[in-house]
Amino acid sequence: MMKKLFLVFVIAFSFAINAFAAVDLNSASVTELETVKGIGPAKAQAIIDYRKAHGGFKSIDDLDNVKGFGKKSVDNLRSEVTVGKSAKVEKPAKSDKKSN
Description:
elongated; 43% helix; two-stranded parallel ribbon; 2 strands; 4% strand; mainly alpha; single chain
């Protein structure tokens, strides 16, 4: 009985941690973005579209450039979203040295 109770506690705790985790604007799916209070289907798709067009978000403030978001809504979302590494891959700089 104690093992089952402990297991239930561990599962509940893991869900609680995930519920408070910030959603990454550079990697979240539409469904994941919709879990954030204030982001519905249209805004979630607008975030995805912006990400595709601009190679990702450099900061949360870039959200202000997305249709449907303003400074106030960005400020309200600041604690619920994060900006991870951009999906855009930079090409390495060309070296002046030639390898032999």
